[in-house]
Amino acid sequence: MHVTITVNGRQRTEDVEPRLLLAHFLRDVCGLTATNIGCDSTSCGACTVIVDGLTVKSCTVLAVQSEGAQVTTCEGLAAPDGTLHPVQEAFRTEHGLQCGFCTPGMVMASIGVLADNPDPTDREVREGLEGNLCRCTGYHNIVRAVRTAAQAGPSAGRVPQTQ
Ligand code: FES
Ligand code: FES
């Protein structure tokens, strides 16, 4: 099937198998490997991306279901000059990652948390990220990173305008 999806501001039209998951479309067709696949069964959140402004586990969506959508992956967050998105910057400064496998999904999910609640408490961050697992169990610093990102203001809950 033909599918046209805008990924990180770039419109792509591709021929795909109807069964192809969005996660595999991003990784294997677009070559955007920040979107990780930890379970393929909606459990871990490593594949979280933002589709038309909402966080989505991309292993739960077919590529063809994303026809016409705007998809943002972790690769699409930094500015062209390399300036990190406030959530990325906060994960860096607060050491919110260890092996990094969960990190792109955590970052995307955190943007979703901040979009819904620009100034969350620790508990609200933990509840907002309950669908994302960190096998290194670095949750303490992840929560701190999200709260630090919140100090950047509304931009922390947004993806870049060009996407
Ligand atoms: Fe999608 Fe785990 S790979 S939730
Ligand atoms: Fe290793 Fe989260 S940092 S899985």
What does this structure look like?
- It holds the Pfam family Fer2_2.
- Residues 1-77 form the 2Fe-2S ferredoxin-type domain.
- It comes from Goekera deserti.
- This is (2Fe-2S)-binding protein.
- InterPro entries: 2Fe-2S-bd, 2Fe-2S-bd_dom_sf, 2Fe-2S_ferredoxin-like_sf, 2Fe-2S_ferredoxin-type, Beta-grasp_dom_sf, Diverse_Oxidoreductases.
- A hairpin with a 2-residue loop joins β1 (2-7) and β2 (10-15).
- It is globular, with a radius of gyration of 15 Å.
- The chain has two domains: 2-74, Ubiquitin-like (UB roll); 86-157, Orthogonal Bundle (DNA polymerase, domain 1), CATH 1.10.150.
- It starts with a strand and ends in a 13-residue tail after the last helix.
- It has helices at residues 22-29, 86-93, 103-116, 122-128, 139-150, and strands at 2-7, 10-15, 48-51, 54-57, 70-72.
- By secondary structure, the chain is of the alpha+beta class.
- It has a five-stranded mixed β-sheet, sandwiched between helices.
- It is built from five helices and five strands; from the N terminus they run ββαβββαααα.
- α2 (86-93) crosses α5.
- The protein binds FE2/S2 (inorganic) cluster (2 copies).
SSE layout and pairings?
Blueprint: E1 2-7, E2 10-15, H1 22-29, E3 48-51, E4 54-57, E5 70-72, H2 86-93, H3 103-116, H4 122-128, H5 139-150
Parallel strand pairs: 1-5
Antiparallel strand pairs: 1-2, 3-4, 3-5
Helix pairs in contact: 2-5
The structure holds FE2/S2 (inorganic) cluster (2 copies).
One FE2/S2 (inorganic) cluster binds near residues 37, 39 and 45.
Keywords: 2Fe-2S, Iron, Iron-sulfur, Metal-binding, Oxidoreductase
GO molecular function: 2 iron, 2 sulfur cluster binding; metal ion binding; oxidoreductase activity
InterPro entries: 2Fe-2S-bd, 2Fe-2S-bd_dom_sf, 2Fe-2S_ferredoxin-like_sf, 2Fe-2S_ferredoxin-type, Beta-grasp_dom_sf, Diverse_Oxidoreductases
